[in-house]
Amino acid sequence: xxxxxxxxxxxxxxxxxxxxxxxxxxxxxxxxxxxxxxxxxxxxxxxxxxxxxxxxx
Length: 57
Description:
72% of the residues lie in helices and 0% in strands. The chain has one domain. By secondary structure, the chain is mainly alpha-helical. The chain starts with a helix and ends with a helix. It has helices at 2-38, 52-55. The protein has 2 helices and no strands.
């Protein structure tokens, strides 16, 4: 019975991890699109965290 519980727990862990990774990827892509189209860092992001190479564009 404990093996089944372990598989269920592992499945839930990977499912939650997948949802979180997908959400953070969506946020990143939206921020990069905003930066690419408007040439300004979105207001929710700290400009000092953006690498200087991106600011050159």
